[in-house]
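Researcher: Before we compare anything, I want clean individual predictions. No alignment, no superposition, just each chain on its own. First chain goes here; please echo the sequence and then give the structure tokens.
Model: Echoing the first chain and its structure:
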Amino acid sequence: MRTGPGEEEFSKWLIKLDNSESPPGMPPHKFKLKIGAIVMLLRNLNVHQ
């Protein structure tokens, strides 16, 4: 995908804005994990359920 002048900067700004959102009841965007910690990542494949 080609981007025009300023589109790349706008895209970076939009990602930062999206990552700064913290809806009530949701964990923060950045997780602080310890080295060697066991982590299970889950993904909701059917968002309509």
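Researcher: Okay. Second chain, same rules.
Model: Second chain and its structure:
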Amino acid sequence: MGERLGERLDEWRLHLARPDALIQLALLGLATGMVAGGVILLFRLAVEGAQAGLLPGAEAYEALPPWLRLALPLGGGALIGWLFHRHGRGLHVLGVARVMERMAYHQGYLSLRESLLQFAGAALTIVSGHSVGREGPHIYLGAAGGSLLGQALGLPNNSIRTLVGCGVAAGIAASFNTPLAGVIFSLE
């Protein structure tokens, strides 16, 4: 039974490498959008939950006492520095630039370690009041969702690259509430 299932999966992977696998790729794109949306939702809940616990109102950093307005970014920066020093060895760039680099030179393969580091680092950066947006992390996390899904299913490189594009589109759509713009951006 297990051997037969393995043979069927191998046939499916080979089929996805052919140009006539449009319906299967569309379904995988839908799954990627759902995975990316779930990860991005978790990211937003983590950021908004932490901000709700620290701040008197939504993004009301100016309402904090002066000492905390100084301590929060300093402490957050120190924590982010430690996180990337400890776990970010070999990473020189994250965010959208990393997605573009991995697409250009590594067939869209993004690692789980980098994805977790992006999630935690970006959340800490936003919560501690540093001047970053959520768009870059959304794009990266969406792309990582597509890449990791494709890797988990053992898909061929061209299919993984397609799923990364679907994840990028989901990230843009989640950031700006513009699904069509997400698709156009990922095609670019």
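Researcher: What stands out in the second chain?
Model: Residues 16 and 159 are 7 Å apart (CA to CA). Additionally, The chain has a mean pLDDT of 86.
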